[in-house]
Amino acid sequence: MLQQFRAILIYYKALAMWSFFATIILTVIVPQIIPALLTKLFLMFIYYWIINDINMRKRIGFYKMVGVSNLKLVAQLYIIDGILTCSFLVAIKCYI
């Protein structure tokens, strides 16, 4: 279980910068938690569709070695990203 979570965190590290840019754009447009989480959920659906592509699956299959399914990967990435997004938005709302 811990090894699976580490694999997911390693994978999230590559996506963290893109997620942070999306969070900043969402903060400028709509600095509210619910629309930000819904937008991130939509982006995760698109990401899930991309990683189910056969060619992409071959390139990013290292997390499969520890037994993480595509759905579990996307769900845990969304949870991690949601926590970070909510934390960022709450911190920004203190200064706005």
TrEMBL record:
Identification of the protein by name: Uncharacterized protein
UniProt KW Transmembrane keyword: yes
Alphabetically ordered keywords of this record: Membrane, Transmembrane, Transmembrane helix
Residues spanning the membrane: 7-27, 33-50, 71-92
Keyword Transmembrane helix belongs to the record: yes
Highest taxon listed in the record's lineage: Bacteria
